[in-house]
Amino acid sequence: MAADKKKRRRPDSNSDSDSDNRPFKSKLKPDPVILQTLKNLKSACSTAASTSKTLTLTDVGLSSTCREVADLPIDEVQSEIESLALNIAKSILSGQGFSFSVPSRSSANQLYVSELDRIVLKDKSSLRNFGNVSTVRKATITLRILQLVHQLCTSNIHVTKRDLFYTDVKLFQDQSQSDAVLDDVSCIVGCTRSSLNVVAAEKGVVVGRLIFSDNGDMIDCTKMGMGGKAIPPNIDRVGDMQSDALYILLVEKDAAFMRLSEDRFYNRFPCIIVTAKGQPDVATRLFLRKMKMELNLPVLALVDSDPYGLKILSVYGCGSKNMSYDSANLTTPDIKWLGIRPSDLDKYKIPDQCRLPMTEQDIKTGKDLLEEDFVKKNPAWVEELNLMVKTKQKAEIQALSSFGFQYLSQVYLPLKLQEQDWL
């Protein structure tokens, strides 16, 4: 009876295993050929890492005109805050009130340095005076944040940005205000935001050929299921990274991450797969940089074919303007744009119904990106972005599912890797 049922069961028309006529599948070479290509890429990356030096502001003669923060131990952060408090007390006792000299994080105070390949903060500052009606509230919030961070230092504990906001809701009013001042405090103290013991809630996930210790517990990312392992919000917890991967695959969206994870793509073409589920958070950026630096692996990025996909890629690679003061610790150099690129829409015959018209805002964002120095430095990026703006078409990674749910993992990515089709 079971055999009869099995015989009568109709094949699933959506099953990728039955779709031998999927576009470009016939072009795929045997896996060992693709694996050799990846081994060559890893070898070239390791050689470049051993021969190149990580440049600093001093190396390019900008140490006096630009500023950046450092990763400081907790006792130094505490000492710096106490020194600030002492100066404030002296200023008040002398009858002068108090104020903070706060580095400006506005767009006008940002600079892209091609030699460093990242955005840095220039040295312009503004005065946040408690005695001035226009700045009194921000000065009060700044002092309160400093007090709370000092408490964290003395207790040696970590809290989330949300926890910080709820300690004084009436003063902060909105979390965006306490978050912004927290970044200001990092600049004032001269340390990274993670050095303040304030972290963002867990967002990013990792899966694949990676073993690392998380607060002393060894984590094997091949045994984390299709959901992956949440990236620890505190990078200090992470250590002892081990991997036999050939590259890191950085994925923009959770949906693509889940597809690749469930298909165990990391076993077929050994890799570590990471996503921040959209806009990159600090923890994921720190984790990606740590992997890149410790494991000497190339990073290939899979993002949507729209201006925001390229913006996300640039945040990982060159840094965000909002946190340019910490770009030295948050950026991952030499990320390669694997896909989905505007030229892929025609190359892989993406159906018209899966292509989306760009909105006016999309087109404006695309044109603005073309004016950015970090885009101009890469002529191939400029060419792709010009094509996107000209055709006024965009597409998500999921557009590939029109050829089958597993087309991404079984055809598109293997073919991209085989042809070394990255920028």
From TrEMBL:
It comes from Anisodus tanguticus. The gene is TOP6A. Residues 1-29 are annotated as: Disordered. The lineage of its organism: Eukaryota, Viridiplantae, Streptophyta, Embryophyta, Tracheophyta. GO terms for molecular function: ATP binding; DNA binding; DNA topoisomerase type II (double strand cut, ATP-hydrolyzing) activity; magnesium ion binding. Transmembrane segments: none annotated. Residues 247-417 form the Topoisomerase 6 subunit A/Spo11 TOPRIM domain. Its EC number is 5.6.2.2. This is DNA topoisomerase 6 subunit A. Residues 1-10 have a biased composition (Basic residues). It catalyses: ATP-dependent breakage, passage and rejoining of double-stranded DNA. Keywords: DNA-binding, Isomerase, Magnesium, Metal-binding, Nucleotide-binding, Nucleus, Topoisomerase. It is found in: Nucleus.
